[in-house]
Amino acid sequence: MEFFYHEFRAELRHFPDSLGVCVPGSLSTRIAVDLAQIALYSDTICLLLVGHPFPTKREYKHHHIRPTDNSMLPDPRADNNAEPAPTPGDALVIVDVQNDFLPGGPLAVPKGDEIILVLNRFIKYFADLGLPVVATRDWHPPNHCSFQRAGGPWPAHCIANSTGAEFAPVLQLPTDVRVVSKATGPDRDAYSSFSGTDLDQFLRSRKVSRIFVGGLATDYCVLNTVKDALALGYQVVLLRDAIRAVDVHPGDGARAEEEMRGLGAVAASAGGDNK
Ligand code: VGL
Ligand code: ZN
């Protein structure tokens, strides 16, 4: 049971009303997401994977789900831990939720897969209100300057049109999602989704003044996207449950969050009611 609730703690906190999805961190994401898609419809898969069917809402209520790391706790510094409700003028910006950045990929962000279901909830929320949903993607040529083989810091990742560059299959993007590709030329990297793209233009054309940001990775593309957004005059809501850090240096993610908040980003936790 311990194992079960550890594996499902994010889902249990965010989706007590829905069926669970199995994404055990120990499996490669490519396998896990396929299973997850099936598991959306089948308690049997949960049973096979974790030895226990997904609990019903009633069972959930009788258990105390304890978060195992601080990032899952409501942030006492936030004015209001429930996420601000999206309204006209808001857009959802999902940063680089691509296979190569997920567990099993060459540049895997630890626990990156945990954000997908949280993002799906936000996607539905925004789509139902007719508000813009943007998905950005790293979209590199094979000889991109950020790759180690070209003298850069990273293993090759997100090569344009490869499977690794595809959005996570479980991410339920709306049909009218605005896809923004970045760092598409060999000579420049772009950690910010505004860098060398038409994202600012698009948001302005849709009269957006505030963006809700989630995705990967907290300490690189999320950080730089948020910094540019604030500099461009957008308000930013940082979805703390929907970001994960690479943490090349331990604490990078926490420092990035601190920096974004210091610059004016409002941090919101979807799980503010968790005890
Ligand atoms: C990213 C490292 C290299 C990111 C992109 O999306 O955060 N990180 N390229
Ligand atoms: Zn990259």
3D architecture notes:
The protein has about 280 residues and is of the alpha/beta class. It has a domain at about 90-270: Isochorismatase-like (Rossmann fold, 3-Layer(aba) Sandwich). The chain is built from nine helices and six strands. β4, α8 and β5 form a beta-alpha-beta unit. α8 (about 220-230) runs parallel beside α9 (about 250-260). The protein is globular, with a radius of gyration of 18 Å. Bound molecules: pyrazine-2-carboxylic acid (VGL) and zinc ion. Zinc ion (ZN) binds near residues 138, 157 and 158. Zinc ion (ZN) binds near residues 138, 140, 157, 158 and 183.
- Secondary-structure content class: alpha/beta
> Would you identify the CATH architecture of the domain at 90-268?
3-Layer(aba) Sandwich
Q: Residue-averaged pLDDT, rounded?
A: 78
Q: Which CATH first-tier class of the domain at 90-268 would you pick?
A: Alpha Beta
Order of helices and strands: HHHHHEHEEHEHEHE
Low-confidence stretches: 1-80
Alpha plus pi helix count: 9
What's the count of strands?
A: 6
Q: Main sheet: which strands, in order across?
A: 3-2-1-4-5-6
Can you tell me the CATH topology of the domain at 90-268?
Answer: Rossmann fold
Q: Which ligands occur here? A: pyrazine-2-carboxylic acid, zinc ion
Helix percent reads 25-40%
- Integer-rounded radius of gyration: 18 Å
Give a short account of the largest sheet.
6 strands, parallel
Broad shape: globular
Beta percentage is 5-15%
Q: What's the end-to-end separation, in Å?
A: 19 Å
CATH superfamily of the domain at 90-268: Isochorismatase-like
